[in-house]
Amino acid sequence: MAACIRPAEHPTLTRRTAAAALCLAALLASCAPVGPDFTHPQPPAERNYTQEKELLTPAQHVSLGERLKMDWWRLYASNALNATISQALAGNYSLAAARQTLAEADESVAAENGGLMPQVSLNGQISRQKNGVAVFGPSNIKIPPFNAYEAGPSVSWTLDFFGGQRRAIERQKALAAYQYYKLDAAYVELTGNVVAQALDIAAARAEMGTVLKIIGEDKKTLRLVQKSYSAGAETRVDVLAAKSQLENNRALLPPLRQRISAAEHALAILAGKPPGDWTPPAFALEDMTLPQDLPVSLPSEMARTRPDILAAEANLHAASAAVGVAAADMYPRITLSATTLQEALVPGQIFNGTANAWSMIGGVSAPVFNGGTLSAQKRAAVDAYNAALLQYKQTVLNAFGEVADALSGLGHDNELVAAQQRARNTAAAALRLTRKSYRLGESNLLRVQDSERQLAEAELGLIRAQSQRYQDTAKLFVALARAPVTRE
Asked: Within 231-252, where are the H helices?
């Protein structure tokens, strides 16, 4: 409908009409929005993550119901690890990108909020027109071309009577919360990856140290065999067997060096540095403390603190608000608009009092027939909500599974470490006896080499079991971790 422009002859009436429109707008905006109001999912009622008995060993103990510190990596008591994590938090590009994505989401909320406010614009127009006279019937009158000048503000306001805009804002806020928790998750993932790579370096260095000791023992055995061979007590085959064992153990070193290099490169990338320009500290297991007290929050508490669960809940909230948006689209829309203009045929008269003109329009637009589009869109929004609810439940189950796996892994790790310690002690005692028998001529070289091989396997197995316990402890902490990320 085109605006009807007329001179402003009743300013008092105009002010009253505007005031009435504002009161009506405030009244309509106070109405409750259509669609479902979001409710937080109920926390799980379970009190345990597994059916196994509580982990209780001399080395580690689970404190169920205790909250894990956000800077959990400090429990390893490693200054080198703390410094590396600080560098990664400051330089990691993925974390910085997540911060920018959150900032984008916050600005989108501000943009959506603007939809509740009146939209004001300033308009100006200069036109040259030539009107015909045939519409007035036969006439010899000629109307010459003329210029028209217009300038003034206009206001339009779509009243959020059924809450569609408020639901849209609610949805955008939920999406911003989703990005906030995704940032938290990126923080937890980054710190967990740094710890994992640091522990891998320490484990590989420990294995390398053990292999070097084994190689040293192999060299001693080779010299002993060569001396016996020179004396005629051993054969050439015995010498070759000793050399073969030495070279086989030397072959264990290159994969360990490559493992260390790969972990160092990964740490450099996590810290936002080119691998060729930055080298992490030489991490060592003996410089780290195995955390003894393991705080494990209850399942109900973890569901309210773990970032990926909270992100899934925020996504569910957004889906709930989207149902309200789709429902509001099925109701009428009420729009108020007003325009005040200065109109004149010559520029010098545009600001005269006689040039004043105004218009006020109230409009209603209601969907009548759209081929079922709006109904289908609402059903689709409901389906999306149901899918988000199922995804939330799956996320909770996955989180419980990660904690359960970590707890079970730690229980088995402690058993494995104890078994490997016994195996190592037994193999060391057997080697001492075998070497003594060999020197006395009561045993052959084959038995000595077999005992050395068993000790080497036992020592490497012990190092790997101890390293795995460090890693599984970190996995437990990551599964329970929160993030102190602030919305800067």
From this structure: 236-250
